[in-house]
Amino acid sequence: MDFSLTEEQLAIRDAVRSVCRDFPGEYWREREEKGDYPSAFVDTLTKLGWLSILIPEEYGGGGLGVVEAGIVLEEIHRSGANANACHAQMYTMGALLRHGSDEQKRRWLPEIAAGRLRLQAFGVTEPDAGSDSTQIRTRAERRGDHYVVNGQKIYISRVEQSDLMLLLARTAPAPSAEERAVGLSVLLVDLRAAGGAVETRRIPMMFNHHTYEVFMTDLHVPVENLIGQEDKGFRHIIDGWNAERCLIASEAIGDARFFLDRSSAYANEREVFGRKIGANQGVQFPIAQAYAATEAASLMRFHAASRFDAGESCGAEANTAKLLASQASVQASNAAMTTFGGNGFAAEYDIERKYRETKLLEIAPVSNNLVLAFLASHVLGLPKSY
Ligand SMILES: Cc1cc2nc3c(=O)[nH]c(=O)nc-3n(C[C@H](O)[C@H](O)[C@H](O)COP(=O)(O)OP(=O)(O)OC[C@H]3O[C@@H](n4cnc5c(N)ncnc54)[C@H](O)[C@@H]3O)c2cc1C
After folding, report:
1. d(CA 326, ligand 1 centre) in Å
2. Domain 119-231 sits in which CATH superfamily?
3. pLDDT digit string, tens, across residues 125-175
């Protein structure tokens, strides 16, 4: 299998690289200092069509696959930027693309592709459910032509920066403990029409991220905004997980390459004891180890994403890619902190910022423990541990 990039893929990479040059470290540091959302960055990516790359051409999108979307995200992260502010449009699009009706797709996708509507929020996690999403308590009761939603979500990113939110809510009780995924539905919430029925509270985080507690009180959602089948929503969400894992892996690989680029350059330049610090094996070996881990993760990511784009099963590959890539980026971030010494802690070098940012990829949107549990039970046939 050859995973070298095609001419078109190289052109995508170079184009995104060039856009990101306009948003250097100073830009991200200033956003963090002010706690700002990086609107200029997101607007630029939107205008250039990079966030709608997965939307089919007939709806005004790029009509490309997860491989290409991953190249975009990797390049953003490799430049030192962070796609957290806008990647949900790629992650969440799948539910609407695969399970939305033709009418829903005609109504929403061209607006999203044109950048007139932002689908940046995905409401799953709840304070008392966590990784076990089937235990969510948010209820959507059907009353005539609309649902009435009541409940609370936590860590819902970009809800204040989005027009639409995909919401997972319980529409019927689970028939039994074994069938606890049944009775959940996916609703497309138009946040612009929600008024006081949706309240949000920003959660201060260890890096500049816009994530919120969301309180829904008698929120009315038209029945026509149900995505896919009522009570089968959990399956629709799961369907998108493999694409999401490939995309997260791509971000982690981008982060890892950012650390490798910066570490190699710094280790080749900084002199202590009369020689380059990179001449010391204590400095160069961790960088080389992280490089090897990153390359392996990248191959697995392309393998998984190619299978996804070809319509082949890829649960084992996508989960493995997510695990290896997030571990490689943390490994590379540790190597960078060692290489930069005291300067690793100074904001102006961007190492400490990216070090904080990349840690998230081990935990969200799915924690590596749950990835391991999937590999153990679904791939290796071990007893299910949850
Ligand atoms: C910055 C940020 C942004 C986020 N954005 C969103 C968003 O936009 N939308 C959204 O819905 N959610 C979002 N989340 C939530 C995120 O998806 C969850 O934090 C993540 O899935 C883990 O769930 P939890 O925090 O409830 O951890 P818990 O489920 O409470 O788990 C805590 C720890 O226990 C481990 N654990 C739990 N059960 C098991 C088990 N059976 N076996 C082994 N280990 C286990 C977990 O791996 C984890 O390490 C975000 C989170 C963060 C931090």
Report:
1. 15
2. Butyryl-CoA Dehydrogenase, subunit A, domain 2 (2.40.110.10)
3. 999 998 999 999 999 999 999 999 999 999 999 999 999 999 999 999 999
